[in-house]
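Sorry to interrupt, but I need a hand with the structure work. Could you write out one complete protein record for me, on any chain you like? Could you add the entry underneath, on a fresh line?
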Amino acid sequence: MTKCILCLKDKPISKSHIIPKFVSDWIKETSATGLLRSGWNPNKRVQDTIKNPLLCIDCEKEFSVFENYFAKNIFYPFHRGEKNFTYNDTLRKFILSICWRTLHLQFTEIKDTAPRNVFSIVSKAIEEWSKYLANDRDDFEPYECHIFFLDNIKNSYSLKLPDRFESYLFRSIDATFAIGKEFKSEKDIMFVYVKLPGIILISSIFPSKIPDMEKTKVENSGILSPPQHIYQKDIGSFIIHRSEEAFKRRLSDKQMGKILESIYKNPERAIKSKSFEAILAERRRKGIKDSWF
């Protein structure tokens, strides 16, 4: 028995997925091998994403409503090729529920060493986000939530992008608290970043309103449709940096052999997989002409 981080009541605590289970299930179902690996530890197969004891059963059920809404109305339709999405405030609560848990976990680890101004700003954000998720306040001002659909990467082909960039964008998951290196000027930025396959979610901390984001902001309700653009240089650079970090660790020869063995057993699955699509997309970006078929 401990205290739920949302309702603050002493109740039995369940283990919460930071990234919803339906996401990791989709990655496995659409992979070349049917298996799940972490970019940060690619030599270990995993069955699920990390779970943490954070919420009571009642609050977990409330969050599951947000997750089901996102899966049914945004995630699966997007991966079926839909481009336009009509939404209500449940979308913002879904985005914030992931970002809030990510921020709570990661800031707990560093708060004792964080600069005083960072501690004050982030603590305030956690408090206000908690109120919004617990329905103790109706509005989300002054903070913002954004969603960006990654179906137009071809527009960035002129940039110098790292190897396996497409695999990071379309086949991996990532969640972190992002902060400027020094955080000593008004130009520094803090936000929570969550990357699902093909979709980026961002909740602003400082500044509370993120400039240079086009058609990405999630309101109480509205329609999301392409084209979207992120002109915010700090966020663009951050995405590239995270993709580099994700694949620093290389697969061992043993694990590569296991992957190839799985592919040889079912080559048709591999060719039709989203994993293979990501590999082809990278080769096209690099101007490599394939003659496999």
User: Anything to note?
Assistant: Residues 162 and 244 are 6 Å apart (CA to CA). Confidence is low (pLDDT under 50) at residues 42-46, 154-158.
